[in-house]
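Schema walk-through. Below, the input block comes first and the output block second. Nothing else is stored per chain. Lengths vary across the set, and this one has 498 residues.
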Amino acid sequence: MPAGDEKDAPKEPDFPEGWRHGKPDLIITPSDDFKLGATGDDLFRVFVVPTNLSEGQWVVGYDVKPGNPRIVHHTLHYFDTSGQARNLEKKQLTKEQDERAQGKTLRDHGPGYSAGMGVGFVPSSGKRDAPTFGGIGGWAPGLAPQILPPGMGWFLPKGSEFLIHTHYHRNGLPGADRTQVGLYFAKRPIDQPWQTIVVNGLKPTEKIPAGKADHATRGAIYLHADAVLHNVLPHMHLLGKSVKMTMTAPGGKPIVLVEIPVWDYKWQETYWFEKPITVKAGTKIEIEAVFDNSAANPNNPNQPPVAVSMGDRTNDEMLFGFLGVTSTQSPWVQVRTSALPPVGMREFAPPIKGELTPELEQRVGQWTTAIVAKQQGSTETRLSGTKSMTKAFDGTYLFINTNNGEGDEDTQELVTYDPVRKIYLMWSYTADGAIYEWDGKWDDTTKSIQWTTKLSVDLTGSLRWGPETNGVYQTEFKVKLGFITVYTATVTATRKKG
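--- output ---
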């Protein structure tokens, strides 16, 4: 629209020192500008900033000042006390120094280290009273400062390092950025840690067809604990057309939480409910959206259109719904979710008519687990957890509930033998609503089951269930990008006595 008469314009708001909620208690600033090249794929950079806190603090709000809004797609915020992020930054900077010494011109350079959508290592959540890793929100274009209701907060441990995971999208020009995060600390006691639950509506292997103007998709999670819902934030990329999120209590009817009939990628916002909503375990949270991948979509980054799948880059797509929640209990409990409804609900039904073989039945019981996990380019992380295996559906299935450490989300699996196809089948249900189907084959030589699945358009997973010997069995999990192994995990499970 043409500009109006300046005399009719309202007075510009006065933000103290540029911060929209007043001066923060702690301003997180990278050590230098990061230089981004003009062309190439999107870049994910993690900036590691020491907090120098002599004691832990409860964070009750934050604001983000992108140094260069033209290239900052979004940020995610974490803390780390393990030192792994700092070590990855040292490796990155050493590599860049060596390349400069060899006379190479670096397209991208500066503080931090490059990673994918994750932080580049397998984090350990630590103990509830002494966490080693955790999240403190994020930012996307349009978001206002995030200030929590009284009595709620994120815990930031003493001596921790703050991680600003920044997604850069190039705009054809060289750019420099030094994004800052301002933190506001609690001035009164905190009763409830702030929790975030996520529902994913775009299947990991799904593709949005080229030229299709109304590709609809949806996903859902179920609450496995009572909770209080405070706000909701839907997230898509450039092909997003409309989005809606609903909740359905057990035995109830769907209630709309938020509906955006005309999605605007450049104006994303957190929507706070007028009154917090208390919901029961078994409540279904669903997200549904429509994508426009036609040439008529002016925001389509591909002309002519191409098939688009779920991915990290701006030109890929996403469909996530984030909800800010707290526990209904004091002391608090973690609000757990799953793509699988709680056992006992009417919607809990077997995917197929299967059989429980002796190879599956021998795993029934309670197990403790020791996990050694490693992401490509990082050090090993050691975790401990639990695994519960019980019979389900009149003894025709194995139901598995896995937890890999305090603070981590549970994963559920249903496992059976398909007598028609003569293969083993496993369905893995994640906390954010994704469902992965595995095919398994029995290897009589090694007395093990070899599993394979498609984790995304680009990633494949393999899993080996080894035999039980003296109450111990081992599994080996690998994720591959093409022929390159990008993640491994070895799990040693020991049967609990009694």
